[in-house]
Amino acid sequence: MYAYGGVRAALASVLLFTFAGSALAQEPPFPKRGPIEITVLFPAGSSADVAARLLADGMAKNLGQSVVVFNRPGAGGAIGYKHVAGQKPDGYSLVWNSNSISTTFHSGQLNVNYEAFDSVAQVLVESPVLAVPSASKFKTLADIIAAAKAKPKTVTIANSGTGSHTHFTSVALFKAAGTEVIDVPFAAAQVIPSILGGQVDAGVQLPAALTGNVKAGQMRLLAAMTAKRDPAFPDVPTAREQKLDVALELWRGIAVPKGTPKPVIAALEAAIRKTVESKEFADGSEKLGARPAYLSASDFAKVVTKEDAEILQLMTILGMKKSS
Question: What is the pTM of this model?
Answer without folding.
Answer: 0.80
